[in-house]
Specification:
Blueprint lengths: L9 E3 L5 H12 L3 E6 L5 H13 L3 E6 L9 H4 L4 E4 L12 H22 L5 E5 L35 H18 L5 E7 L1 E3 L10 H11 L10 E6 H13 L5 E5 L2 E4 H12 L12 H7 L7 H7 L9 H7 L6 H22 L14
Parallel strand pairs: 1-2, 1-4, 2-3, 4-5, 5-6, 6-9, 7-8
Antiparallel strand pairs: 8-10
Length: 368
């Protein structure tokens, strides 16, 4: 592990998030100075785990207030830094009321604001943007671009829009914005990290991550009646963190990097969890018929168009660049799922033990 104590500070935006917290941890573990941007440094619930990292690890942590949609908000954090890792961007699965307010504007305008700060800071020579495989592949309409069945960094999502898969659309627009701004200058190099569905143990106690929610739903039996016929790439959050750090510190790192350990279906992940954790949890044992997904999907934020374009299709990705240029050795999906689930089980047990026993009381019977 390289010593980063002599490097200029590294800026990590959206630092309190699920994946970003691991990036902060990875940098601090290597002795780096990290400027972690958050919306409210005084919010103990969201920032205490970062503060604890700063105390426990050899690096130096600075919390800096910044807001994605506020021009100039990142100037202070970026000034004098050597590299910027821009990770802040919204993501959730559910009913979407306003795609521009919830996804597109924060992603695109946030990227512009961060890179505007980078363009003002002569010290910055490297930028790493957290993109997604959602900017590579949207749904089955993009499959003809991968005739061998594997998407590469040369592929772009052309099937998403503000009305259909707005999260994927926002990631695509944000990444293209970054590449356009990169092309307009010559000082800083740009790498984009394009991970698939990120899973693995969390450094933050918050439970609002979609990754945490997915494992929680598996454990609670949300899919016990049947797993949706969906397939997506899976990658360990710790591998994602290492990729961001390596892209920031390797002088030759540039371009797009797909991060996928393996593609898995919902059912395959349920089968892995059952094999690792036993039969004590209601993991799915069969695939939900596609027509039922048409019926139930809209209540879960999955439109008919999404179901039609994704259900029943298998996808795969070429990860040669991330392995060869960033040195990523992928964690087996089986280990990722098991360790993530065990963390949630342990957290639930700790809560149960801390709660006082509930004493049932009955009112005395009235005398007649």
């Amino acid at each position: 592990m390289s010593d980063l104590s002599s490097h200029l500070p590294f800026v990590v935006t959206g630092a309190s998030g699920y994946a970003a917290s691991w990036v902060v941890w990875e940098f601090l573990s290597r002795g780096a100075t990290v400027r972690a941007t958050v919306r409210d440094p005084d919010n103990q619930a969201k920032c205490q785990h970062l503060i604890d990292m700063g105390k426990e690890l050899p690096g130096t942590l600075e919390l800096v207030k910044a807001d994605l949609l506020e021009p100039g908000s990142f100037d202070e954090a970026v000034s004098g830094a050597g590299a910027v890792i821009h990770m802040a961007s919204p993501f959730f699965i559910g009913k979407i009321k306003d795609p521009y307010a919830q996804f597109i504007n924060p992603a695109v305008e946030g990227t512009k604001n961060v890179l505007d700060a980078v363009n003002k800071a002569e010290s910055v020579t490297a930028v790493v943007l957290t993109s997604s495989v959602a900017a590579v592949y949207g749904d089955s309409r993009d499959l003809p671009k991968a005739p061998d069945g594997r998407f590469t960094e040369d592929d772009w999502n052309t099937s998403s829009s503000a009305d259909h898969a707005p999260y994927s659309f926002s990631k695509t627009l944000a990444e293209k914005t970054a590449w356009d701004m990169h092309a307009a200058q010559s000082r800083w190099r740009l790498s984009t990290i394009n991970p698939a569905f990120i899973l693995g143990p969390s450094k933050t106690p918050r439970g609002d991550s979609e990754s945490v929610k997915f494992i929680r739903d598996m454990l609670r039996g949300v899919y016990k009646m049947g797993a949706p016929p969906l397939c997506f790439g899976v990658v360990d959050v710790r591998d994602v963190a290492k990729a961001h750090v390596e892209a920031a510190i390797r002088p030759d790192a540039r371009g797009r990097y797909i991060l996928v350990a393996e593609p898995k279906t919902f059912l395959e992940m349920g089968q892995i969890l059952r094999a690792r954790l036993g039969d004590g949890y209601p993991f799915p044992t069969r695939v939900l018929p596609k027509f039922l997904l048409y019926l139930a999907g809209p209540s879960q934020g999955l439109s008919w168009k999404f179901v039609r374009g994704n259900a029943g299709y298998l996808v795969d990705f070429d990860t040669t660049r991330s392995r060869e240029q960033l040195g990523i050795e992928y964690t087996p999906v089986e280990d990722t799922l098991q360790q993530h689930a065990e963390q949630q089980i342990a957290a639930r047990a700790a809560v149960d033990e801390s709660e006082p026993p509930q004493i049932e009381t009955t009112k005395p019977r009235e005398k007649k």
